[in-house]
Design brief:
Blueprint: E1 27-29, H1 31-34, E2 40-46, H2 57-70, E3 78-82, H3 86-98, E4 101-107, H4 112-120, E5 124-128, H5 133-147, E6 152-153, H6 161-178, E7 185-189, H7 194-206, E8 211-217, E9 246-250, H8 252-266, H9 272-293, E10 314-320, H10 327-346, H11 349-354
Parallel strand pairs: 2-10, 3-4, 3-6, 4-5, 7-8, 7-10, 8-9
Antiparallel strand pairs: 1-2
Length: about 350
């Protein structure tokens, strides 16, 4: 039976500029996604409430503000960086709001909606080899900057400490407040790694017993747009592999399946990286649930909001962006076609001719 609905009381934010509404996003309980694991609560940080539609608004704003403070970003400079989409959209939005020109290196297989949004904000786009993914965009961006460094402000989101510090100062603080410090696990997939690095460092200081789990595509050849397989990719300078308690490897098809499940079971249209986050969160939930009842090598796992009469509860938090488009359906169609071609190729010659 579904729980009774409580009509929320409207509490509008105070009037302010567009950029003042970056951050302070809600934390959503994903009850149906977690319902097969009683006692485990999964929450998604609804970063699609940011003006640019993703968690990347936070680091983009922080990198721009820090660039202004140190004098590296001035009115005559063009903001230049590489992106897989969301950070670029955030740059373009903030650039439009603050009067900066923006030039972005983007893999040409980025989704059509991302390309349209970047153009709508007035950004100049340099398309790069889709086979090289975000690494190809990074290399092209470095070439452009090296040829004329005086023309550009190059924040370099993969190397800029202002990236992870944005999450240390805001996202991590919000998660602790919104969970009333009951959080036991934090899960985030790795792209620049800024979200994971910043939130984890905050949690390490405020509540060190929280388990922080990173997630990555299971191979270098994957369809998880914006995410990095660190063993085969250009590793971001801000990434510290020692910070995670554990890393989980995510299958592309599983992430796409979870995107559809979130839409149909929770009413949430999320992006592929958020789908990967949910896959990782459910892997942890699957492990936690039986441990709450019985474990082979330890007594009952202690709970943070339990008493003698009640199962201990676990709270997992993940970032969620809304960047959903028809690529999900296209991906499934491509997989079916690939399987059909492979199956056809295995048939004997006489069967092929008959077909």
């Amino acid at each position: 039976m579904l729980p009774a609905l409580t009509i929320p009381v409207t509490r509008p934010r105070a009037a302010g500029s567009l950029l003042e509404h970056i951050g302070n996003t809600p934390l959503l309980s994903l009850e149906r996604i977690a319902e097969e694991y009683p006692g485990v609560e999964i929450f998604g940080k609804a970063e699609f409430f940011n003006p640019g539609g993703s968690v990347k608004d936070r680091p983009a704003l922080n990198m721009i503000v820090e660039g202004e403070k140190c004098g590296a970003l001035t009115a005559d400079k063009i903001l230049l960086d590489s992106t897989s989409g969301n950070t670029g959209i955030a740059y373009a939005m903030i650039g439009a709001a603050r009067g900066y020109k923006v030039k972005l290196c983007l893999p040409s297989n980025a989704s059509p909606e991302r390309k349209r949004m970047l153009k709508a904000y007035g950004a100049e786009i340099v398309f790069t080899d889709p086979g090289e993914g975000s690494d190809g965009a990074i290399r092209r961006c470095r070439e452009i900057y090296s040829a004329n460094p005086e023309l550009y402000f190059y924040p370099d989101q993969y190397s800029n400490p202002a990236n992870w510090k944005a999450h240390y100062g805001t996202t991590g603080v919000e998660i602790l407040q919104q969970t009333e410090r009951r959080i036991t696990h934090f899960v985030a997939a790795l792209g620049t790694s800024g979200t994971f690095m910043g939130v984890t460092r905050r949690l390490r200081e405020e509540k060190p017993e929280v388990k922080c789990i990173s997630a990555q595509p299971e191979s270098g050849f994957h369809g998880l747009e914006g995410l990095k397989h660190m063993p085969t990719a250009i590793v971001p300078a801000i990434y510290d592999p020692e910070l995670a308690d554990e890393n989980l490897w995510i299958d592309t098809e599983d992430a796409y399946t979870m995107v559809r499940r979130a839409a149909r079971e929770e009413g949430l249209l999320i992006g592929i990286s958020s789908g990967a986050n949910l896959v990782a969160a459910r892997k942890i939930a699957r492990r936690i649930y039986p441990a709450m009842l019985w474990t082979l090598d330890e007594p009952v796992v202690p709970g943070i909001s339990s008493d003698d009469q009640r199962l201990s509860r676990r709270m997992l938090s993940i970032p969620c962006d809304m960047r959903y488009d028809d690529r999900t359906i296209t991906f499934v169609a491509e997989q079916i076609a690939q399987f059909a071609n492979e199956f056809y190729g295995m048939l004997p010659a006489d069967y092929q001719s008959a077909a």
